[in-house]
């Protein structure tokens, strides 16, 4: 089956997928070009402090804060800047800040804060949410691979932040950015969908089923295995839908729909409760405060909302928002 990869493709609607940058792969190993780009007037630095992004609240939602030349005393206190790419107007680099630098930039920008991107991105512009997620994913990989996994010597950052090489010349092992593939699936049977609840989640939170792909396993096999392990549900059809980068901390979520053979299910060690919902039942449960859905930034919510609309339930995001507004009064 041929899948579209243009900006109107299915994955484009998921949060953090709108990284509309030329990633400038051919420039990463050109130190002269990188040095010139870092000194250019159009450069924008994406500041990261302890894996948190710099944000501001504006009239239209959360705004990504980029720093300009001169706003930092140095751009390599912790490590060299990481080249993210260009949108043809400006070039973006991710920069890791020390505690002192964080305090200095916040003093100069009293309306800004360093915050968790996962929840703060709910009302962010899609492009800038994607850029910050891209920077955060690389930042996480860099800081958790500071030492060689073969000989234990320190790694050195190369290729403008996209490659690590062991400093032990006898080893010289190279490491490249890694992500953890995971499947996330909305299981349906007839006019109902299956939602599960993990005991570690906030009270009343229900969501789709998910799990990590194991070595030597296809994505489809992972769907079948995880659904059976978590809910003892057997599937007769599995269909890929879309994907989402999820740098919390380093996953790539591969979204699926699956049709169950029956509604027989059983809770497991991973889930404490399972429920089948039709669109009408889910609407009532959300509005009555019996069910709290996943955040709208997640592919879990998108999978559910798309099914809900196709099944005649309407706009699930509007229903969830109505429930939140009622609960806050």
List keywords for this structure.
329 residues, alpha+beta, Nucleoside Triphosphate Pyrophosphohydrolase, 6-stranded mixed beta sheet, 8 helices, 27% helix, globular
Summarize this structure briefly:
This protein is α+β, with helices and mostly antiparallel strands and 329 residues long.
Write the layout of secondary structure elements.
Elements: H1 31-39, E1 43-49, E2 52-58, E3 61-64, E4 82-86, E5 91-96, H2 99-108, E6 112-115, H3 117-120, H4 126-143, E7 155-158, E8 163-166, E9 174-175, E10 180-189, E11 192-197, E12 209-212, H5 219-231, E13 235-246, E14 251-260, E15 273-278, H6 279-287, H7 299-310, H8 316-328
Parallel strand pairs: 1-5, 10-14
Antiparallel strand pairs: 1-2, 2-3, 2-6, 4-5, 7-8, 8-9, 10-11, 10-12, 11-15, 13-14
GO cellular component, one term: cytosol
Protein name: NAD(+) diphosphatase
GO molecular function: metal ion binding; NADH pyrophosphatase activity; RNA NAD-cap (NMN-forming) hydrolase activity
């Amino acid at each position: 089956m041929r899948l579209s990869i243009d900006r109107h493709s299915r994955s484009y609607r998921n949060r953090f997928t709108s990284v509309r940058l030329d990633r400038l792969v051919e420039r990463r190993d050109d130190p002269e070009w990188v040095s010139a780009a870092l000194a250019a007037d159009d450069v924008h630095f994406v500041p990261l402090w302890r894996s948190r992004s710099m944000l501001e609240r504006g009239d239209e939602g959360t705004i990504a804060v980029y720093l300009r030349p001169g706003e930092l005393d140095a751009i390599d206190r912790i490590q060299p800047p990481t080249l993210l790419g260009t949108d043809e107007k400006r070039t973006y680099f991710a920069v890791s800040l020390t505690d002192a630098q964080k305090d200095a930039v916040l003093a100069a920008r009293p309306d800004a804060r360093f915050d968790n991107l996962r929840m703060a991105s709910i009302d962010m512009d899609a492009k800038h949410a994607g850029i910050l997620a891209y920077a955060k994913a690389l930042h996480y990989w860099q800081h958790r691979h500071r030492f060689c996994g073969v000989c234990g010597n320190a790694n050195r950052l190369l290729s403008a932040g996209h490659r690590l090489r062991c400093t032990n010349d006898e080893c010289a092992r190279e490491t490249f950015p890694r992500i953890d593939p995971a499947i996330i699936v909305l299981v349906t049977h007839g006019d109902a969908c299956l939602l599960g609840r993990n005991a570690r989640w906030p009270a009343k939170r229900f969501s789709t089923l998910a799990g990590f792909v194991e070595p030597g396993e296809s994505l489809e096999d992972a769907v079948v295995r995880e659904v059976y392990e978590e809910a003892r549900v057997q599937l007769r059809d599995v269909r890929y839908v879309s994907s989402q980068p999820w740098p919390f901390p380093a996953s790539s979520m591969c979204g699926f729909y699956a049709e169950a053979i029956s509604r027989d299910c059983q809770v497991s060690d991973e889930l404490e409760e399972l429920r089948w919902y039709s669109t009408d039942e889910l609407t009532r449960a959300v509005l009555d405060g019996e069910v709290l859905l996943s955040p709208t930034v997640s592919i879990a919510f998108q999978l559910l909302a798309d099914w809900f609309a196709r099944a005649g339930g309407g706009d699930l995001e509007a229903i969830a928002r109505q429930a939140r507004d009622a609960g806050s009064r």
